[in-house]
Queue: 4 jobs
Job 1
Amino acid sequence: MDRRRFLGAAAAAATGAVALPGLAEARQGIDAALSGSDAGDLAYLDGAFERHRGGYRGRPPAVVLAEMRGDLDLLRDVLSRPHAAGTRADLARTAAGITGLVAIIQHDRSDQRDAHGWFATAEQAARESGDRQMLAWALARHAMVPLNYGAPRSAADLAMRARAEAGQAPSAAAALAAAVTARALASAGDHQGALRSVADARLIAERIDGSQAADTWFGYPLQKHHVHLSQAFTLMGRTREAYAEQEAALALTTSPSVMTRALLEMDAATCLHADGDPAAAADKAVGIWERLPQAYREGLVRSRAEALHQTLPGAAHTRLGEALAS
């Protein structure tokens, strides 16, 4: 049963009305003969984009991905139809957003190959739409795949392209690109470049508000800002600044945010090791891991924990390794 028929059947069940045979098909035929015949589907997809962009809201990544499955089928169907140029550009922008969200989820689930593929699709759609801010957002988000999975130079290249696309006006995409550039350069060992990008991110974050600072996957709220800078300073071994960013981020984290909290705590554990206390680092990381729901144990949190595990010596290395293997 397609979506229109399903909705029609649901409405009939709710009102007690019985649909006349062929009535829905007649309306669809009239729609097809009118300009803007896809208006209903386009409006639905735009709403789906707005709904999904709100993030996990305490739900595991696999659950959110499953909820998006039907919308992806509809998007594929609508994209295959002819459209006027303006409508096509709007649809391409929506497609860039929705496919970018799928890429984020696949990144968080550690499916690197699929994440790269979905981000490539999002970037193609963003270019077709002509929206440079959408393209900058897709590139900056894409940079987080190589950044979090061991290729910081590739991440820096993508992030710097994103920063160039975003331009000089303050925007969520520009702030994200600057923050991810800082993290990538820190991971690559270019601490001076990372500090310059930290300053860039801070300057932009101070100048954005409204929807640009909204707590969504497309906004750049202060909480997200502090999360990024926590990781940048952690990677540079600047633990005093990292602890301050972690404290600021946690103070602003009011939603369940299971993954965000775990990542910040892993940053804190890494800072303990950098400060010369590997046993305390292992204890903290093990505590985080043991409290983590099973649905979050494969993906970005595991990657962060394994990165710490590789650097720990002796008994601390063994302790965290045993926890990760359990």
Job 2
Amino acid sequence: MPDELFALERYEHSGTPTAPCPLTSGARLVAAVHLPEDDVVLALVEGPDEAHVTAAAQAAGWRVDRLLPARWLAAPRGTAE
């Protein structure tokens, strides 16, 4: 079964967010962006399930404020749809 896509949100009130660390344990960071108007870092992560992605993110030192299943509308090249 291919990995699922998840949108991970982390709310940043410090003004300057840190870049997310690479993930391990089978979860893969696809992309991450900072939305300064909303003080949000949004990361797209592929992994087998929500629990696995949350555990991998926390092991990498990420705070997970919200994690939702996501679906590609237009996937980057080299990314499974």
Job 3
Amino acid sequence: MTGKVAQGMQQVPLKGRFAGRRFVVTGGSRGLGGEVVRLLLADGARVATCARTAESLDGLRRALGAGDELFTEPLDVAEPELLERFVESAAAVLGGLDGVVACAGGARGRGITEATAEDWAMSWALNAGHFARLVASSAPHLRASGGGSIVVVSSISGWKPGPQAQYGASKAAQLHMVPSFARELGPYGIRVNAVSPGSMLIPGKRWDRMRQEDPVAYRNFAAEFPGQELVTPEEVADVIAFLLSDQARGVTGVNLPVDRGQNAPTPQGY
């Protein structure tokens, strides 16, 4: 890939696995997305990322001590026009794109008798819709760079049923898109893959709160993992970085679970 530096950007040492390469990561202000951004920057890349609030992005920049190698913009990825404009801005600032990570996502609503049509529509927009528009808007830039890698963060809920169905269905849609996009974009040197995390232990989030507030329930849930331990964001980020790298140049159209062998995706089982 290119080692050029965009005009007006600070020159950075061409060191590391991703030296001189340019990536877009959606949902990169914290959690798994933040870890992906950190890992890519540490390995020499320049990164553009987005999140819902400017405050969270400012916090990321401070935590990483990042300079011109990190471009950030607050937006909601469920709004296609904003997402597409962000990709165009990122490509212009970075001088092109070599890889993309669709990390933003989520779910709205409760069970089937309570979830509204809006809950279903938003869950779809956050996951399947966001991924599709990100691929569509970034593919021309990847093609112009001679190819690249696209990774979507899906979930084991995409094929292991559990509540709520609107989340699992939208994640399953992502997994269907991956081999389809891989075949369509393969002639241009673009690889497309999915990483499906299991339940991640992220400080301050659901499973970490359960561990602190209800240790018995947490131990029961941890029994769904053969090693009795939940997967970490660092473990998932390492696999994402592998799929973005030249080491995975022969890998496309696949879904790679990173779940420590997790069985049921929720405490409620299948």
Job 4
Amino acid sequence: MSKTYELKTWKPFFEAVINKDKTFEMRKDDRGFEVGDNLRLIEVEADKDLQPTGRVAKYRVTYILRGEQWGVMPEYTISAIK
């Protein structure tokens, strides 16, 4: 069963995702992300105590690389999103 995760995302990275220049999310693998999960990305200001800007984007995880596979840092995951 898929889960939905709310993730704070700094403004430059959020912009890259919604512009389709960035099609992945790299995060600490502490939530147990799985293919099929939904990510609710919440744009935040990095220099203003992570205050949300009000913009939100929703994506689905389509592929995952986990720690030490193909150079991924231990305890991290890279998720392809669509």
